[in-house]
Amino acid sequence: MNTFNDILCRYNWEQIKERIYSTTAEQVRSSLNKTTKTLDDFLILLSPAAKSQLETMALMARTITRKRFGKTIQMYAPLYLSNECQNICTYCGFSMDNKIRRKTLRDEELIQEALVLKEMGVSHILLVSGEANRAVGIDYFLNAVQLLRPYFVHISIEVQPLNREDYQALHQVGVHSVLVYQETYHREVYRHYHPKGKKSNFEFRLDTPDRVGSAGIHKIGLGVLLGLEDWRVDSFFNALHIDYLQRTYWQTKYSVSFPRLRPAEGIIEPNFIMEDADLLQLICAYRIWNENLEISISTRENEKFRNHIISLGATSMSAASKTNPGGYAVDKTSLEQFETCDERSMEEVKSQIRKAGYEPVMKDWDSCF
Amino acid sequence: MNKLTIAGKSFDSRLFLGTGKFGSIKEMTEAVLSSQTELVTMALKRVDFEAVSDDLINSLQHAGVNLLPNTSGARNAEEAVLAAQLAREALETNWVKLEIHPDPRYLLPDPVETLKATEILAGQGFVVMPYIHADPVLCKRLEDAGTSVVMPLAAPIGSNKGLRTADFLEIIIEQSKVPVIVDAGIGAPSHAARAMELGADAVLVNTAIAVSPDPVVMAAAFREAVLAGRMAFEAGLGSTYSSAIPSSPLTRFLLD
């Protein structure tokens, strides 16, 4: 059976790039009119030519999302467990070669953070860490999830790639979703940005969603770090990955996130700037191509963008996020992974969602499942 | 018009509503009232069991409707049974809408797990209302397993495509010993009317009302459509023919 790596090897980055950039306005119109959209249509909707149809795409994205998800936005908050890391990723505040104070939350600290989040009404959390298998490995995660389970009905994790057996164990203790971003699907560029540590292994990371899917986890979250490479080409490969996974793990749900490179301690400027209009086009393209994909917008994005994206394709949003371990209660000065842009409180964001005629949903899962 | 009876309970309204996808609890409650429904479904996964009182449930109780928890989120019989038991304890109702859809793309129901769960739950005294594909054989199997109704789909959830399964709904209605409630895919009042004209005992509508630009008016439209369809069915609809028929072409010779 073909792995995703086999499939990816059949594609050529430059050829895909060429196809995207040579897309015509006529092709865009034709794609938008089709009833069933394929990956080819997604490619077309990513093109510069599609930008002139952005208003149409936005209306379609709104209509499709409403039909499939209703007028609701699922709310969640991240809980950073640790900023220990054994990788060098030249764009990240947690990079091993950054001389920062490292912090990993102890049991009692996890509970304190959880209580603050509960106070905010949070029911869905995303546990995040750097990638440090020795200090913060599967045993730590299993313990953390079991400690936090009584507080939150829906626990997602975004940590280093683990083994299939690890994901099975996490599934048993109640982890609902696993997020893992390939960062970039361009092999050479990937190596350039991830020169050291386990993360430097492109194929191991690429296979991670397969390990997650075959372990029975309910949902897999994917994404690329927008700004490392050409976002159009990287997003095409991201969609190709989702398409493969959907066919292979048909009982699994999928979500996509849009981490855009933002300022962080000690990093370089992104090579490719992605404007707000580009991000909107990307979100609409995803929604038009894939009606069932969950689309998550974090506090990395600014208030104005987030306010408008509520009704243009988003299905979940975080709020009042702290991206440093202990940021909610125990250690507010530890280093953030990235600066958040939308610093509104949970109540303020919920109020904005209601203003848009949507309902902010705090609980959309139960521990009986 | 005749009342609908399910597990000993009578209903004047043959329109049931789903409560998902609305833009606010207020909007949902207003639509529920406008529809004059007497039964609404609600996803267990949305209920806040920890809160002293859950907003969703409070609003619906004030509206005076019967609450039917659904097991949306369950991927197999085991999870659905657990969810049903949780609902019975927390919401003090033994009515449960079984929704087992392991396929998150089209939310199509798993027939094997649904049959299994029905057998278990009916055995535990639940009033089981299973959401299924429009499979006439499955409907009879569910009857044997003790289901209180069958809820065959018209089209995939949220698709608003209408009675794509009409041929099979007719067979199910013809053969059924339990009420048939057409659920999922009803996108317009005309679809609901047609389902009632075919002889369905009730319809369940969610997306078409919830995401309409005016849910309150749309709910009223569905109310009228269900009434009209049922009235027509009870009055006895004329058969349709593909060509006009004069009064007695074949047998007139007998009068000559």
Features:
heterodimer; A: 369 residues; alpha/beta; TIM Barrel; eight-stranded parallel β-barrel; 9 strands; globular; B: 256 residues; five-stranded parallel sheet; three-stranded parallel sheet; 9 helices; 10 strands; 15% strand
Write the layout of secondary structure elements.
The complex is a heterodimer of chains A (369) and B (256).
Chain A: H1 4-9, H2 13-21, H3 25-33, H4 39-45, H5 54-69, E1 72-82, H6 107-119, E2 124-129, H7 138-148, E3 154-158, H8 164-172, E4 175-179, H9 187-193, H10 202-206, H11 208-214, E5 219-222, H12 231-248, E6 253-257, H13 276-289, E7 294-297, H14 303-309, E8 316-318, H15 346-355, E9 359-361
Parallel strand pairs in A: 1-2, 1-8, 1-9, 2-3, 3-4, 4-5, 5-6, 6-7, 7-8
Chain B: E1 4-6, E2 9-11, E3 15-18, H1 25-35, E4 39-43, H2 55-62, E5 66-70, H3 77-91, E6 95-98, H4 111-123, E7 127-132, H5 136-145, E8 151-152, H6 166-175, E9 181-183, H7 189-198, E10 202-205, H8 207-210, H9 215-235
Helix pairs in contact in B: 1-2, 1-9, 3-4, 4-5, 5-6, 7-9
Overview of the structural elements:
- The complex is a heterodimer of chains A (369) and B (256).
- Chain A has helices at 4-9, 13-21, 25-33, 39-45, 54-69, 107-119, 138-148, 164-172, 187-193, 202-206, 208-214, 231-248, 276-289, 303-309, 346-355; strands at residues 72-82, 124-129, 154-158, 175-179, 219-222, 253-257, 294-297, 316-318, 359-361.
- By secondary structure, chain A is an alpha/beta fold.
- In chain A, α5 (54-69) crosses α13.
- The mean pLDDT of chain B is 92.
- Chain B has a single domain, classed as Aldolase class I (TIM Barrel, Alpha-Beta Barrel).
- With 256 residues, chain B is of the alpha/beta class.
- The A-B interface holds A 66-72, 123, 218, 246, 250-253, 292, 354, 357-359, 361-366, 368-369 and B 20-25, 43-49, 73-75, 79, 82-83, 86, 102-105, 158-160, 207, 210-211.
